[in-house]
Design a protein that fits this description.
alpha+beta; seven-stranded mixed sheet; six-stranded mixed sheet; 30 helices; 33% helix; RNA-binding
RNA sequence: GCUUUGGUGGUGGAAUUGGUAGACACGAGGGACUUAAAAUCCCUUGGGCAGCAAUGUCCGUACGGGUUCAAGUCCCGUCCGAAGCACCA
């Protein structure tokens, strides 16, 4: 029987599906292992060869873990809400659900062809109301929670209310939007509206006004990375900054825990660093500055408290409320003009065009250490959102302050010995402090930093500031709360209705609040989100049910929120849902959660390093606070697979003005002799950079009569590595590869391409190599129709080939070095073929070894051996013992630094014995004939070096 | 600008983490089998020099230094590429 991958693959894929081979149970005596892929967004284009790269890797790992005796959870689902389906709906009127379902079916069909070991009974779709019920549930829980820094966890908002009743804000250390302080009496005096407003300051899911990227063309808010040069990436519509009231998640409350948690998980250092940067912890000092001639004072934040003696001016953010208060009448006109200018600049302009601008307020602040007057300026380089929106400027030691000082001709006072600040500032935190205070200048309580190192000076200043109540040590984070509202249709609705403008939750037992049908997916004429078109989108509070929008009366029937949640919502807890996907009572049942704990192995693209992977960790920590998730971190080990890039091919059309003439194309090597235009050509009609000219003529009607200038009788195409995309004609569909070579070959080849973390271009050139290997592998078992494996004692060489492979495979798979594992297979199979090995004792385990990579072939052969169930590695313990590599160490023997030969000696030998043995060797004696040995150096286990006189 | 990564044959990539650089594969060239093709198998394949030959020998991991008996691997400097952050005080 020849290797007929088509019948083998369809046969076993059907068998796995009907047997539910990969169904994972929530109970087992085996240890658990949870292998997860980042679930895909089912786009209309279907899968290309880049998508399965990660899935194949994780599937190999999952199958390997099963062989090692684990109960493996390996699920798959779809991140199905999103803008493309909605955009398509706007253009065609096709309901996003229809598009999405079609796309999912295509994905499923393509995935099934590759032979993954997913437990499809656990599939989730984020757009399924049964699923997003739990997204909405978690959101409501966040709405009903506040964050307590004292216990460092989320707690029910009712507990906060009870505290306010008794003591007001006294003794509360909560995460909040604005610092509030009131007594129990004041709380009791508040009306309901005021109380709700107050609680909003503390809720973890809260409404707040924030500046957003508003895209009128798309009718929605966009994330920063969806905007380039002031226009939307999708559609190219203009984007403006606009204040809007939005739902926010108080992720900043978790900043420190998100940071600390990174030390407990096994992620690549680069992703950890990206997250650390994103969280942006900086430890500094908040200091109070008095305003000269007034009893007002304001607060600044600095990480360089030690530079207090070099402050020559202060700068306020233009948006700061202090600007109005500190502007003197003489400067009012100037300041207002400046504010107008800043307002006219978008955030993008401020970022791309960094000019030095600012204006003097007319006020002076008093340096608390020296009593000196310092002018207060306004400048757009100070951000209102970070720190206190006000800084003390030390031009000598901060490059931004320096640029500002030079531009406005403000003084620069150097504070570090030997630092030359005539051309640029000295920003480094090193050196010996001077001028602090300057000779003869006053200083509060005679405080001096002169002679200290910068580090010493920072801590000395902090201590002094705290003791003298000039300020406090403070930690700042760059992390911002997550804006959670999107003005779209195809997302999770907020389960919130509004009474008198105040938000209230739809009762938990009425969830999910399902997305209503609408006739048109565009925003409404009045600029409301698409849900503004829904006919039945009001809440009847009395009967706890949906009601017609027209019936809203503000007494019993109230409007429901018209926004939906962003894509990150559905992906924030899906890994928990997989553990217990059919549970109607909970997101995940206690037992299932206790059993599966968290994801052991998570694989996906590094583009999610900041968004999904931060939101998901936050979401999980929040659920952990309430005991719904038993682990602090959702993803124990994270691996980022690289992207598969496209490899485009070009043909070179000879330029010609005569369009009636047949187009002429010249081969790559000859193109410099002509004037040509490169044209992308479909890579599917190019083989090894040689164009199939007949297929090319058939490809496009305008090329029907094409003529070719060939070299060596072939048309050679040019090539380039580009993004895999339809417009470059370089998309390779995995279905084609499966049809042509089989799924097992595709799996092998994608892994053989290189390390999974690495991005690389797809190039089908090398696929014949693994295809050949697989046929060779097959021939170990079959000589045409004849089944070869037979009983008998394997030879030493056969055992060695097998056991070298066993060792190598286990080492390499744990390191995820699948390409080298496959090399090891090629070597082993080559050796066994040379030995004409037909021993069952070798071939049977060989099938087990290859099964993670080529499951179809393995299943076929395994059944042929007469086994029904697959086995674990542990079922062959004798293999490791039957053949033991002698416990030797290889010494490289060198003379005067040049390696001459190697010597294999027992590990147990001591230094002197090794020297003796090596010197006694024939080769050594040959080299040493008539020479004097000066010394012999033995490095344990490594090398013996003989130095001659 | 800062941070993180990389730079090895014609190509994709190996190298037990400091120990015979180029495993494995592709491509290329030569050969065997065959009427022929497919398939399969064998040999050569980093560069230079010497030799009919087995082989010997020198140079080679972006570049320049250094540490070491020994460096692709560690350290310093330079050049180039990729990714992330980007007025965060």
């Amino acid at each position: 029987m020849d290797y007929d991958y088509k019948s083998i693959e369809t046969k076993w894929q059907a068998w796995w599906a009907s047997e539910k081979t990969f169904k994972a149970e929530n109970h087992s005596d085996k240890p658990k292992y949870y292998v997860l892929d980042m679930f895909p967004y089912p786009s209309g284009a279907g899968l290309h060869v880049g998508h399965p790269l990660g899935y194949i890797a994780s599937d190999i790992y999952a199958r390997y873990k099963r062989l090692k005796g684990f109960n493996v959870l390996h699920p798959m689902g779809y991140d199905a809400f999103g803008l493309p389906a909605e955009q398509y709906a706007i253009q065609t009127g096709q309901h996003p659900e229809v598009t999405t379902t079609n796309n999912i079916n295509t994905y499923r069909r393509q995935l099934d062809k590759i032979g993954f070991s997913f437990d499809w009974d656990r599939e989730v779709r984020t757009c399924d109301p049964k699923y997003y019920k739990w997204t909405q549930w978690a959101f409501e829980l966040m709405f009903k929670s506040w964050y307590d820094y004292d216990t460092d966890k989320a707690r029910p908002i009712d507990e906060l209310k009870a505290h306010f009743e008794k003591q007001g804000t006294e003794g509360i250390n909560a995460a909040q939007s604005e610092p509030l302080s009131f007594t129990a009496q004041e709380w009791k005096a508040m009306d309901e509206h005021k109380r709700q407003e107050t609680l909003m300051n503390y809720r973890i899911a809260y409404r707040g006004v924030s500046m957003v990227n508003w895209c009128a063309g798309l009718g929605t808010v966009l994330a920063n990375d969806e905007v380039v040069n002031g226009v939307s990436i999708r559609g190219g519509f203009p984007v403006v900054q606009k204040p809007m009231e939005q739902w926010n998640l108080r992720i900043t409350a978790y900043a420190q825990r998100l940071l600390d948690g990174l030390d407990t998980i096994d992620w690549s250092e680069s992703v950890k660093i990206i997250q650390r940067n994103w969280i942006g912890r900086s430890e500094g000092t908040e200091m109070e500055f008095k305003v000269k001639g007034s009893d007002r004072h304001f607060t600044i934040f600095t990480t360089r408290a030690d530079t207090i003696f070099g402050v020559t001016f202060m700068v306020l953010a233009p948006e700061s409320e202090l600007v109005k208060e500190l502007t003197t009448p003489e400067h009012k006109a100037e300041v207002e003009e400046y504010l107008k200018y800043v307002e006219g600049r978008t955030e993008l302009e401020r970022m791309s065009d960094r000019r030095v601008t600012g204006v003097f307020t007319g006020s002076y602040a008093v340096n608390p250490f020296t009593g000196e007057d310092v002018p207060v300026w306004v400048g757009e380089y100070v951000l209102s959102g970070y720190g206190t929106g006000a800084i003390m400027a030390v031009p000598a030691h901060d490059s931004r302050d320096y640029a500002f000082a030079r531009h406005f001709n403000l003084p620069v006072v150097p504070l570090i010995e030997g630092a030359d600040v005539s051309k640029e500032s000295f920003d480094a935190k090193e050196g010996i402090v001077m001028n602090s205070p300057r000779k003869g200048a006053a200083s509060l309580d005679g405080f001096s930093l002169n002679g200290l190192t910068v580090k010493e000076a920072i801590s000395a200043t902090r201590k002094f500031v705290t003791e003298h109540h000039l300020g406090r040590v403070k930690v700042n984070y760059r992390l911002r709360d997550a804006i959670w509202s999107r003005q779209r249709y195809w997302g999770e609705p907020f389960p919130i209705y509004y009474k008198d403008g105040e938000p209230f939750c739809i009762p938990e037992d009425k969830l999910p609040l399902a997305l209503p049908e609408i006739s048109d997916y565009r925003p409404t004429e009045t600029g409301e989100p698409p849900l503004g078109r829904a006919a039945k989108w009001a809440w009847d509070e009395k009967n706890a049910c949906l009601a017609d929008t027209s019936k809203i009366d503000g007494k019993n029937i109230f409007p429901i929120d018209l926004n939906t949640m962003p894509g990150f919502a559905g992906s924030s807890a899906y890994y928990l849902r997989y553990m217990d996907p059919h549970n109607d009572e909970a997101l995940v049942g206690k037992e299932a959660d206790d059993y599966w704990q968290n994801v052991d192995f998570y694989l996906g693209g590094s583009e999610h390093a900041t968004h999904h992977l931060i939101y998901s960790r936050f979401w999980n920590m929040f659920l952990y606070d309430y005991g719904y998730s038993c682990k602090k971190e959702p993803f124990q080990k994270l691996v980022n697979q690289g992207m598969i890039q496209g490899r485009s091919n070009f043909v070179y059309r000879v330029n010609s003005d005569d369009h009636a003439k047949a187009p002429v194309f010249v081969s790559l090597g000859l193109k410099d002799k002509y004037e040509t235009t490169p044209i992308h050509v479909d890579v599917n009609i190019v083989h090894g950079d040689v164009l199939d000219t007949e297929a090319f003529k058939a490809w496009r009607p305008e090329y029907r009569n094409a003529e070719f200038v060939l070299e060596d009788g072939k048309y050679v195409c040019g090539w380039a590595v580009e993004k895999m995309s339809k417009s470059m004609f370089n998309v390779v569909n995995p279905d084609m590869i499966v049809d042509q070579y089989g799924a097992d070959t595709l799996r092998l080849y994608e892994m053989f391409l290189g390390p999974i973390e690495q991005s690389k271009p797809w190039d089908t050139k090398g696929i014949d190599g693994v295809s050949r290997f697989l046929r060779k592998f097959w021939r170990l078992f079959y000589d045409r129709e004849k089944w070869l494996p037979e009983d008998g004692q394997p030879s030493r060489a056969e055992l060695k080939a097998l056991h070298t492979l066993i060792g190598k495979e286990q080492d390499d798979i744990e390191k995820l070095s699948f390409n080298t594992t496959i090399s090891a297979f090629m070597i082993a199979v080559g050796e066994l073929a040379d030995l004409s090995c037909t021993k069952k004792a070798i071939l049977e385990p060989l099938v087990v070894l290859i099964s993670p990579f080529c499951p179809h072939v393995a299943e076929e052969l395994w059944h042929k051996f007469g086994h029904e169930q697959s086995v674990s590695f542990a079922a062959f313990p004798q293999y490791k013992e039957e053949y033991t590599v002698e416990d030797n160490v290889t010494y490289a023997v060198s003379f005067n630094g040049k390696t001459r030969f190697t010597a294999s000696l027992p590990k147990a030998l001591g230094k002197a014995e090794v020297e003796e043995k090596v010197l006694a060797m024939e080769q050594t004696e040959k080299y040493l004939a008539g020479k004097n040995v000066a010394k012999v150096i033995v490095v344990p286990g490594k090398i013996v070096n003989i130095v001659l006189k």
